[in-house]
Structures are given as C-alpha cells and as structure tokens.
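<backbone_tokenisation>
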Amino acid sequence: MITLRVEVEEEKDLSILRKVLTELGLKFSFDEKEHVFESLSDAAIYGIQEGLNDLENGRVYSHEDAKSRLNDKISEMRVKYAGQ
C-alpha cells in the first residue's frame, strides 16, 4: 500500500479531486484536520527533541521531587538574602 498526501488549499477543489480519485478506482479518505506538528516552530521541535533525549537518558524528576527541590532552593535563597 502507498499513501499519497495532497494538500488542497481551495475547498471547491475537493469535489473535483474526489471525482478524479473515484474515476481512477482508488480507495481514498479525506483528513481535513491540520496536523499539529506542522505548525510548530523549529525552536519548539528542538525543545521537544531535547525533552525526549532527557527522558531517554534518565534526566527527569517526578513532580513531587521537582516541587521539593524548588521549595528547598526558595528556602535557601530566603535565608541567604534575608539580611540584605
């Protein structure tokens, strides 16, 4: 099986495309949803890839652990800068 992806900008062209595909005897379906990944910026894609790399390499923290680490750091900063 081969999948063919065609982007149609004009909705009126869909009926013509449907007729051509039917006349050719091809099985087809229309997916009119915008694919989320197509609208992502390069920076967003890079960030997602880096996050997946972190996950694969065990560089992640649970929600509770991250919250605890942040609270500890905030407490440390309060003590450090309280006298200023």
Q: What stands out?
A: The mean pLDDT is 87. The radius of gyration is 26 Å. The chain has three helices and no strands. The helical segments are 12-23, 42-56, 63-81.
